[in-house]
């Protein structure tokens, strides 16, 4: 994706004609097309849709209420689910001492370029610089050493909702790649590997549900390669999404088994029932506000955002359509009554009674913000005791009786949610190519496809793929080895090395 510029939301000074002038005055409409200039389109969509505002520090963004509601809905779901697993919330400081940060060499090497440091207090240089957490393993685990003594202290299962800072990167992109972002990070310790393995998959399933059931985005559950796994961990699992417009994969969320690597580094031991000392087995797992960017990229269109009903801040917007000489107040009252009925039924609904904007302007405004369903009420609708429903996902319209309003609206919202998932799945699946040879692989890569290829599972071969595909678009890499493995016929050869293949793996460029 092209670097994001602060002036992307400004009108195009070169565009002429009366229609363009109207867009300038109202601020409505996107000047870029999703299929033609994806990077600029994406920036316009999140800015004009009032999801983010640019901040005066590059790579940092203000998350506006339209975004925060989505985050809160996902938070409430995930927080309730992990509490069922007896995982408790906590909070650790954002600052990390260099001594602790450097304690785990392999782990911190992966984050070293991204660590931000506090070096001054006022005008005084700090004697010892303090790091700002890029992730919290090294922050939390000295205290796991302190709190865990015997088997009765296990399992220790903590999660924190917080922000992290990762400084060095190119091409800042709202939600997808930012210097500061919100996330949850879970850190758990167990007496046995079996317990740790079980939790890794339980958490991964919750991440799948966030993407598929809430954000209506299909994902692949799988395991990362040794090269792509979490630095210092034993193995990494992930849910992987794909953006057909750019031909790039997105690591949606990760659930890591850390094994005993960190336990050895931080000396996290426990005594079992027989008094025998052993090292704990640990996991860490996280998802972030990146999820919201993936949602925009997958569902958005040339009118702006398209929000799945499950996470939309406003699921239904009610717009009055008064004609000349109509009883405007009566129409306004009907809109307010409609909102009252929907709200009492548990739906997130609002009316737009602003009298300084036309109905058409309001339609465009709420379409740009991605509201799943619009209800229009005019004099004829009132006379016929009906309302008009207009879907954001496919623009279809239907008139329904007010007597059956709530049930009909709920049914349409369910259909919109399912349709968004179905359409996204069809587009993703249409982008998958099976490549058995290097020639097929490079052809599919140039066509921006998600590539499923047989692989010998050797790190040097994966590094070779990266080196051989370097270019302006970025190098290809393994995305994940899906848990749901297609049949691998005996004698199948690796697409890149010609050696015997051991498994099917997804490959492609990624964000």
Describe the overall structure.
The N terminus is likely disordered. This protein is α+β, with helices and mostly antiparallel strands and 511 residues long. It is built from 15 helices and 23 strands. The strands form 5 sheets. It has a 5-stranded mixed β-barrel. Strands 16-15-17-18-19 form a 5-stranded mixed sheet, with helices on both faces. The chain has a 3-stranded antiparallel sheet with strand order 4-6-5. The chain is globular and about 85 Å long. It comes from Kingdonia uniflora. This is proline--tRNA ligase. GO terms for molecular function: ATP binding; proline-tRNA ligase activity.
Mean of pLDDT: 92
Report the major sheet: 5 strands, mixed, barrel
End-to-end CA span: 8 Å
CATH topology of the largest domain: BirA Bifunctional Protein, domain 2
* Side-by-side strand order of the widest sheet: 9-10-11-23-22
Helix share bin: 25-40%
Structural shape: globular
Instruction: State the total count of DSSP E strands.
Output: 23
Q: Give the helix tally.
A: 15
Radius of gyration using CA atoms only: 26 Å
Would you identify the CATH architecture of the largest domain? 2-Layer Sandwich
Number of domains: 3
Can you tell me the residue ranges where pLDDT is under 50 for at least 5 consecutive residues? Answer: 1-26
What tags apply to this protein structure?
single chain; globular; disordered N terminus; 511 residues; BirA Bifunctional Protein, domain 2; Translation Initiation Factor IF3; 3 domains; five-stranded mixed beta barrel; alpha+beta; 15 helices; Rossmann fold
